[in-house]
Amino acid sequence: MFEEWLAGFPAWLVLGVGLGAGASVLVAAVFLAANRWFPDPPAETVGESDGSLRRRAEIRAFLRAIDEPFAERHVVDGQEVAFYLPERRVAITFDAQAYFRLTNAESDLHVVLCEHEMPGHQLGRRLPFDVPDVRRRRGSGADPVRAAFETLGLPRGAGEDAVESAYRERVKEAHPDRGGSRDDFTRVREAYTTALNHVEE
Question: In this predicted model, what pLDDT tens digit does every residue of 109-161 receive, in sequence order?
């Protein structure tokens, strides 16, 4: 039956399909042999991105600046957290799942979830205790809120809509993909966060 069915096709088609199948098997055999003789090196485990490492360094510097003892990559209630403040029972994590597991656990632990984009010096706003203003202690006599509004090109009393609109315009100019520098981009983002926290209601 198969031979009758096969006889219904032109000889050149049967020959072409047969040669194509044979060539495919040959190429597959070459790849399998090459993979056996020259195996790929084992994949290295991917570490943290530069951004994550930078945020950890910023938070580490901030905690040292406020003289707060901490442990890094500490396991608390079965969850690894980025930073743990043992004297205050505060866990700082970048992992949302760990945050929710620790928050739902019955304990006196205070958990802080940090976004990777959050500048390290802004951690103080999320901590459950009073934190000295580290930026002012460094000798910066200028008002950071006024400087934030000036960076966005706005007067200090601007509203939320004006801040968001000015941020969208300034971030387009400062973005590294559009010819701006990384420092300018970071400064505009930090100015936006500061200004948004101090808008007139």
Answer: 999 988 766 777 778 888 888 877 765 544 445 677 888 888 888 888 788 88
CATH superfamily of 142-201: DnaJ domain (1.10.287.110)
Whether the full predicted model's pTM is greater than 0.85, yes or no, is: no
Write down the residue that tokens 């930090």 correspond to.
Answer: 190
Q: Give domain limits for the chain.
A: 49-141, 142-201
User: Do 187 and 174 touch, CB atoms closer than 8 A?
Assistant: yes
Q: How far apart, in Å, do the first and last CA atoms of the chain sit?
A: 85
Q: Contact at 8 Å (CB) between 46 and 58? A: no
Is 63 within 8 Å of 70 (Cβ atoms)? yes
49-141 sits in which CATH class?
alpha beta
